[in-house]
Amino acid sequence: MSVPAFIHLPHPNLIADDVRAAAIADPVFGRVFTDHMVSIRYTEGQGWHDAQVMPRGPLSLDPATAVLHYAQEIFEGLKAYRLDDGSMALFRVEANAARFNASARRMAMAELPEDLFIAAVKEAVAADAHWFPPVDGGALYLRPFMFASEVFLGVKPAAEYQFLVITSPVGNYFKSGAPAISLWVSEDYTRAAPGGTGAAKCGGNYASSLVAQREAIANGHDQVVFLDAAEHRWIEELGGMNMFFVFDDGSIVTPPLTGTILPGITRDTIITLARDAGLTVREEPYAIDQWQADAESGKLTESFACGTAAVVTPVGKVTRGESSFTIGAGGPGQVTTKLKDKLVDIQRGRAADPHGWVTRL
Questions:
Q1: Domain map of the chain by residue range?
Q2: CATH class of the region 181-347
Q3: Which pLDDT tens digit goes with each residue over 240-267?
Q4: Origin, by domain of life (predicted)?
Q5: Can you give the pTM of this predicted structure?
Q6: Architecture of domain 7-170
């Protein structure tokens, strides 16, 4: 379909320059938001319509709005980066658009044409580019999301949806200052099961992980790591990040995409960059018992998590019940650091982009 023209609604009360400058000086991740948002509506029989760039503000929802009862909701997360020449760029936005529709199919929701998804993201960046934070790791975090907006009570796919994009200036995801994060292995909870929604980026997956994440925090750790639902043996992912394991022979393992973990775009990027560098990457199951044994023997030298928000984050310590083990020296390893640096350099336009991942704005 052709991309409809976006209507730009005037903003009656833009945030003052000095207030904005203070807000973006050191933004806490996901707490600061810009002036505008993008909205597009879908009606069965009519398709997508009413594409608008509008003042960011509260949504008015009827108490019987379908999403509040049946949880038809999906989202994406991506960043706009400032390049060294002052321009801005998106990273692998086409992959976000494709994954958004994969999530929509799994949740029986209307698919948004990929060109329209990308156009909406570009409109959001253009409207609030002056909100880019001048901090280390600074970016504009973009949150496209869609929910069932039809007003009805009944278990069926909705006939109306609203798609929105909101923007948040962000710095680094973890601010603890520690060289690596620590993980708590969940013994009692699983994130997803075969045949479920683990591969979809829907809110329910994250809601069900929060009790385990709270348990991890209560036990002094940064994140929770989930095991598979069937055997409670195989490592799957964190509450919001994919996992990688680096061995003393330079090879790398990451859990396979079997429908129970999110097909992370950063995950796919890391696999590609590692293989470009001549490293062997295996997508295969890796057991929690083996993780501990390999770490204690020295066979495993590094572990790291990755995702759009946190980029590449070293794992230093893992606790499972009463036992704990340390990965390598407990800080960032050489392979982790090199892969992160390579990824960030491409995102920021400092390195060649042989795969065409960067979309300049």
A1: 7-170, 181-347
A2: alpha beta
A3: 899 999 999 999 999 999 999 999 999 9
A4: Bacteria
A5: 0.95
A6: 2-Layer Sandwich (3.30)
